[in-house]
Records
---
Amino acid sequence: MVVYFSRAGQNKQHGTAQYINVGNTELVAQKIAAQLACSAVALQPALPYSSDYQATLQRTKAELTQETKVAAQPLSVALMAREPLFLGFPIWWGTLPQVVATFLATTELAGKQIYPFCTHEGSGFGRSLSALQELAPQATVGSGLAVRGSTAYKADQAIKNWLQAIEMER
């Protein structure tokens, strides 16, 4: 199963805030789900983020600084115990968003294989992999895929190569 958090609206693309209709991480998540012939489920914060880039920056900086537990709406499907979890998120402030941190801290992931993927604009995974391991210590974190957000729309080959490398290609 693919679970992802993504945000549309104004996003940083090529160094400037540009409006996008579909979040970069959602694009990658849908491509992964298509390659795996599985479901992609959006992780939605209980209080949605603004579509305004600057407002989102201010909110997310405060959430990270204050280690805010950002509540999420319940997932529309249950995680299956034996299935690997492909977990996607944008990199905010060098790490994963607090809504993803809350999801990890409140979801039973013991024994789960997690394959992370992220979108970023130059930082790669940043500190998110260590945060992921800290928040899901009973899970096994596999090799991940970092995609530059501004190239998410053309990440098909990178996704295929990654899935082959982790032996998940269909």
---
Amino acid sequence: MNIVAFQRHLKRNAFAYIAALPMALTVFIAYMGTMFWSVRLSFTSSRMLPKSDFVGFSQYERLFSTSRWITSLENLLTIAFLFLAICFVLGFLLAVFIDQKIKAESFFRTVFLFPYAMSFIVTGLVWQWIFNPQLGIQKTVQELGWESFQFNWIVDPNMVLYTVIIAAVWQGSGLVMALLLAGLRGIDDDLWKATKIDGIPAWRVYLSIILPMLRPMIITTVVLLSISIIKMYDVVVAMTGGGPGIASEVPAKFIMDNLFERANIGIATAASSVMLVTVLCLIAPFIYSNYIKKQGR
């Protein structure tokens, strides 16, 4: 683009650039600025107040020698694996179910997607009541006559993490359904007619043909769910508070506790920087496959 063409482009789009300027400044100053500031603080000895000294990677060494942080990472890996797997399978099955042009399709689609519209705080509170041994499932079944019935996962250190996963799946599977349903609605009907003529079983069509065609939706789904896992905080605080003990501790709660309760800015920013790198590693393949690779073609 030569200078004259560039000047014409600026004149035609001057108002658009002016309108976008406040948001651009917000992104670069409020988001990018604070992000780099946090990374910088992770290399200092800051505690209650920020400091400008440089201590190298000592905060990161302290971080990874903390058992609570290691436990939070282990919990995050467990949540990530089960949450992604269950959400994807359940969401895909729901999408296939609705794609059959069933009656009251709008009703079922709204019901399945409704949990995603709720905040994680509300989701956590609702499921905390359901799993509470004194209020929820256990209490209800015992009042029906089965007094020996036990369902106290939320106070069991070995099982509490699965209660968080159940609540998160309940909320997140609707998003998977909506995204994959949009992809299924884009499949040409002639494809289905051809597979029926060839006598290919429906399950084989979905696994070998439909799922590869839904690759862009699947990538988007995995990225969105992965980011929601990394910043998972509200549902854990509402349901378990990270307990019993630290059995359901997650990195986001570890960061918030050190930042506001323990007044340890250095450790908190080091932990947040680790999670930032994790998010970038998740987003990078998505950006490359959907933008850079396509432009290279």
